Amino acid sequence: MAYSNSRAITFDRTKVPGTDQTDFPAMISGTYSFLATVANGGGVTNSNGHDVAFYSNAGLTVQLSHEVERYNATTGEVIYWVKIPTLSTSSDTVIYIAYGDSGISTSQENITAVWSNNFVEVFHLPNGTTLTANDSTSTNNDATTLTSVSATAGKIGGGAATSASIIHGFASNLSPAGNTRTVSAWVNRSGATRGGIVGTRDVSSPSGWVLTVNKSAAGSVSYFNTGGLAMDANVAIPTSTWKYISATFGSGTGEIFVDGVSVLTGSGSADLTHIANGHIGCESSNAATPFVGSIDEVRIAHVKRSAN
Questions:
Q1: pLDDT attached to residue 201
Q2: Reading across the β-sheet that carries 209-213, which strands appear in turn?
Q3: What is the DSSP letter of 175?
Q4: Where do the domains of the chain lie, and which CATH numbers do they carry?
Q5: Is the pLDDT of residue 204 over 70?
Q6: Nearest Cα to Cα of residue 183 among 128, 126, 237, 118
Q7: pTM score, two decimals?
């Protein structure tokens, strides 16, 4: 590679919670004039931004896997996901962004490698104008948008607006090793009614699981399934505000988090191997009880994660 430019990117060790993070998919985003194309006053040579890459060393010999969610050649607005081998809590982590090689005309992305850390579904739901529900993981469980789901402004690079419709059809019959799972999404609630965020509940059985808001109390967040685990956190989820909602299960216990803070723990069994199609934006496979608002960055991993 013959890059004409490179810059260091530093991750502050004090912003890394708990213990060192391994194979962490870090988001690098913003508008940087130097990442516009040469024709627009920047330093990138390819109109699609293909000559932008990330490295772990200043010599630019060890390339890091990355995914491009957004690249604007005119302004230099970007959203990248970069897999960091180790984010340290004891010292700052430094990586390097390189750009400006006219010999590169094809994408250098390695998308599935970015999401190798037990992720089985990752839906970015970009780009705010044309909604797609492609899965970024190696399982390639792309979803199909149904009815009137529309693209809207998201928390990160666009999202999905749901009301009486859903995103449906991603495969959910991947049995998690060790019977563990973490499911998460950014949500922005605009209605006061109960509504599902993501799940596999099948109304005809019924079986499966779902992460939802407003199951028992107005605006609360819940995780429940027919296997015996039902957690209702008495924590209000406000309207017109983006909140990061996640739930975990493993070893007979579950936990709900809001913005990374644990709000409820529970115990019981969980039906994690249900084979009905997954759905985003409702509580069950027949599109019942839709979520009213916007949803972004839906992820499912076969591991029980902690708040860190």
A1: 78
A2: 144-145, 167-170, 278-280, 195-199, 209-213, 221-225, 230-233
A3: P
A4: 5-114 (no CATH), 119-301 (2.60.120.200)
A5: no
A6: 118
A7: 0.93
